[in-house]
Amino acid sequence: MEKDIARVIIREEQIRNKLHELSKTLIHDYQGKEWTIIAILNGSLVFLADLIRLIPFPIRLDTIDAATYGEYTFPKGETKVVHQFKIDIEDKHVLVIDDIIDTGSTLKRVLDDIKGYHPKTLKSCVLLNRLSRRRHHIHPEYCCFDIGDDFVVGYGLDYNNKYRNLPFIGVLKDECYRR
Ligand code: IMP
Ligand code: MG
């Protein structure tokens, strides 16, 4: 897998350090509250797993599925969101977690849907923020890294359902796309 990577843009150690910082902020903001995390699958899996293990108090957790890019590196129109919450989120402090905000349509769809369940507060948290393709005015309250135009893989992010298990974030070699 690593031979397919043209360059690493965020190293494991940088991710680890940033998650420590983020966890301190979240502990400060959510301690003593009924905190509910809703993670958008599959991309946020690795980020979620590492982040929640830095939190020393109970968290309520649920997940939702959103459509992936498949074999493309560009959004193909409308975001498909499949959700059926297994836990009650009404009147709870809800934090939505995703791997990356790109155009913003996934997060917008999810946040709009969750609003209908009347959470007490609703915020979002992403590992990566790509501003250059934003189509919706959405600004996650918690962002770890700003990135440029390049499509990235690793640490949960995939291309055609591969590379999610790389421990860093990198850019693929050109010949790896659409192969
Ligand atoms: P948005 O709806 O355009 O903001 O895209 C968000 C979703 O697209 C994310 O949850 C990712 O799953 C996927 N995505 C966007 N950019 C990338 C990328 O560079 N690599 C892998 N997945 C991406
Ligand atoms: Mg995703």
From TrEMBL:
<dbReference type="GO" id="GO:0004422">
    <property type="term" value="F:hypoxanthine phosphoribosyltransferase activity"/>
</dbReference>
<dbReference type="GO" id="GO:0032263">
    <property type="term" value="P:GMP salvage"/>
</dbReference>
<dbReference type="InterPro" id="IPR050408">
    <property type="entry name" value="HGPRT"/>
</dbReference>
<comment type="similarity">
    <text>Belongs to the purine/pyrimidine phosphoribosyltransferase family.</text>
</comment>
<dbReference type="InterPro" id="IPR005904">
    <property type="entry name" value="Hxn_phspho_trans"/>
</dbReference>
<dbReference type="GO" id="GO:0000166">
    <property type="term" value="F:nucleotide binding"/>
</dbReference>
<keyword id="KW-0660">Purine salvage</keyword>
<keyword id="KW-0808">Transferase</keyword>
<keyword id="KW-0328">Glycosyltransferase</keyword>
<dbReference type="GO" id="GO:0046100">
    <property type="term" value="P:hypoxanthine metabolic process"/>
</dbReference>
<keyword id="KW-0963">Cytoplasm</keyword>
<dbReference type="InterPro" id="IPR000836">
    <property type="entry name" value="PRTase_dom"/>
</dbReference>
<dbReference type="InterPro" id="IPR029057">
    <property type="entry name" value="PRTase-like"/>
</dbReference>
<dbReference type="GO" id="GO:0006166">
    <property type="term" value="P:purine ribonucleoside salvage"/>
</dbReference>
<keyword id="KW-0547">Nucleotide-binding</keyword>
<dbReference type="Pfam" id="PF00156">
    <property type="entry name" value="Pribosyltran"/>
</dbReference>
<comment type="pathway">
    <text>Purine metabolism; IMP biosynthesis via salvage pathway; IMP from hypoxanthine: step 1/1.</text>
</comment>
<keyword id="KW-0479">Metal-binding</keyword>
<protein>
    <recommendedName>
        <fullName>Hypoxanthine phosphoribosyltransferase</fullName>
        <ecNumber>2.4.2.8</ecNumber>
    </recommendedName>
</protein>
<feature type="domain" description="Phosphoribosyltransferase">
    <location>
        <begin position="14"/>
        <end position="159"/>
    </location>
</feature>
<dbReference type="GO" id="GO:0000287">
    <property type="term" value="F:magnesium ion binding"/>
</dbReference>
<dbReference type="GO" id="GO:0006178">
    <property type="term" value="P:guanine salvage"/>
</dbReference>
<dbReference type="GO" id="GO:0032264">
    <property type="term" value="P:IMP salvage"/>
</dbReference>
<keyword id="KW-0460">Magnesium</keyword>
<dbReference type="GO" id="GO:0005829">
    <property type="term" value="C:cytosol"/>
</dbReference>
<dbReference type="GO" id="GO:0052657">
    <property type="term" value="F:guanine phosphoribosyltransferase activity"/>
</dbReference>
